[in-house]
Amino acid sequence: MTTTFTVPLEPSGPGGGSPAPDTAAPAISWQGVRTIAVLELRQRIRSTRWRVALAVWFALVGLVSVLIGGAFASLGGDPKWAFGLVLMFVLGLGLVVAPTLASTAINGDRNAGTLAILQVTLLSPADIAVGKLLAGWAAALAFLAVSLPFLIWSALLGGTTVGGFSLSLTVLALMLGVVCAIGLGFSALTARTAGSSVLTYIAVASLTVLTPILFVLTFPAVTTTEQVVVYGATQEPTAGDDSYECTNFTAEREVSHTERTWWLLAINPFVILADTGAQPGLDPEDSGPFEAIRAATNEMRNGPPEVVQECWWESQAPPTFDDGAPIWPWGLGANLLLGAAGLAVAIRRLKVPYRTLPGGTRVA
Amino acid sequence: MAAVPAILARDLHRSFGTVRAVAGVDLAVRPGSVTALIGPNGSGKTTLLLILAGLLVPDHGSVLVAGADPASSATARSRIGWMPDAFGTWDSLTAFEVLTTMAGAYRLGPEQGRDRAWELLKTVHLEDLATAPAHTLSRGQKQRLGMARALINSPDVLLLDEPASGLDPRSRIEMRSLLRALAAAGTTVLISSHVLAELDEMVDDAVFLSRGHTVTAEQLRAGAATRRWRLRSLDGPALQRWAFEARITLVPDTDAPDGAGSVLVDLTDDAAAAALLAAAVGAGVPVVSLAPVSGLLEQAYLSLDTDRR
């Protein structure tokens, strides 16, 4: 049976009153973000699992810090390395923990039937996504806060300045936030929580492990034989004369254009963090691991020199590039873009009403 | 229809892949009424409610809920309360916190949110469990909390998907009176349920869905269809004799446990039932009871020539 309606299809009040002005919901609001963040954090804090995880973390970082400190004390090594090693350890552990903090935030809620009831409210998709991201990030920062005593202790052994210490910590905190944002994006994309967790770990592994491997594997591909300017000896020394004449000449040499692939190193979280700790203007030869990593990455970034040095017996001309230039703004920028992409995906996938449903999911 | 419908849907269609979940729904729900949404499993009730709640875009057709399009309007959102058939709770939050969170999601101030949360906890009789974690609540208590959650924004239109499942009889009666009170205060309630006998006692109208489309929109209170009644007597043969003499067609009652003492009879309305009862008693038949075999909704539901999917 078909019913014909004589009522005009125009917005009007439920009692037939004057049409209500439709106030568009704000794209994002502090109240909405706070509501979600508080909700998420409350749930997290109350689980005993969470306290156990923090305790285990504290014990682990403490143990490793003490071992590192002890090793330097007994072996008489340079204690400047201690801070770098503890920092790298905290980053490594953070990259293992951070994916778990946000990678099930959206599909987990959808499976538990607690997502749709928020989507029908006045909360915007951005409120929900940013609130969840902030909660995940805050949880990651709690792990960082727990390791702070050991980081400060190792920093006091030397090897960094107050400025360098705060920069390292800020960048470390931001990197953990990026991992949370990537996890959030995957949790919006996949129906199953296991899937998004695995994808997030793959993403983190790609950034940390796969990038140096790729850099090495692509090395032959960027290595070519070219005509280059060489500064070196052109002829054998004449008998009785030990002096070589060094001049510029053009010859075929193998050169590696690592300026095309250096970014593979720059986006690596460990390289980024190492770079934040590097002291500007220090000679890489007699300073800590940070300066060495920065110098090496800068060398790759600049690619082959304009003039290939082959005049070994003359004093080396100073490098034509600045090998003390910071790498981390590039790497951090790229990672923040990845995080922003994750967040954007999450916001997009949270928009209701749904036109198409993610495969294998129900709305409610 | 005089007033503008609180819910108005015209020619709604929605498919999921090859499954046509909603295929031609026309719906007009009077403001301030309690309307039942009835249909077999898989007839599109939940999908229809999702569209009305603004969670799904219909492939075709138009919807107005509380005077606005739920798909694009914040106004509609703030006026709709929705309780899904299956929902989770934030397990580690207390019942009170669940409601204040929802109040925040509807942009109520903290003070206002707390007041509203308390008010609703009292309404659904969960005030004793206000500080209990939600995971310790029983299924029925969670169901009541879900109802309170749907009411947090004082909606004009309340969409309830199987709200009575898991409720004990007392809670069902309380829900019935709550919904009637809400309707009396002007709230429009659209409720889907399988417990037809219960709906019978509280709904004003009913909408039947079958295979994704509306079959008939009945005005139950106005309707006066022939119903089947059960007549029970202490003396079966006496009843049979009297019916034969009075030329009343009796149908054997195969469901009854007491056999010959119970028969079925089709009657047009309540007046006919009263007349029949008076006649039988007058003729000396020891009548025990005369009552409708099934509720109006059940009868209408069963008369729908639909098969289950």
From TrEMBL, chain A:
Chain ranges passing through the membrane: 52-75, 81-102, 133-156, 162-186, 198-222, 327-347
Record key words, sorted: Membrane, Transmembrane, Transmembrane helix
Region (Disordered): 1-24
Keyword Oxidoreductase: no
Record's protein name: ABC-2 family transporter protein
Natural source organism: Occultella aeris
Automatic annotation (TrEMBL), chain B:
CDD domains (alphabetical): ABC_DR_subfamily_A
Record key words, sorted: ATP-binding, Nucleotide-binding, Transport
Classification of source organism: Bacteria, Bacillati, Actinomycetota, Actinomycetes, Micrococcales
Source organism per UniProt: Occultella aeris
Family (UniProt): Belongs to the ABC transporter superfamily.
SUPFAM superfamilies per the UniProt record, alphabetical: P-loop containing nucleoside triphosphate hydrolases
Molecular function terms from GO: ATP binding; ATP hydrolysis activity
Residues annotated as domain ABC transporter: 7-236
Protein name: Putative ABC transporter ATP-binding protein YbhF
InterPro entries, per the entry: AAA+_ATPase, ABC_transporter-like_ATP-bd, P-loop_NTPase
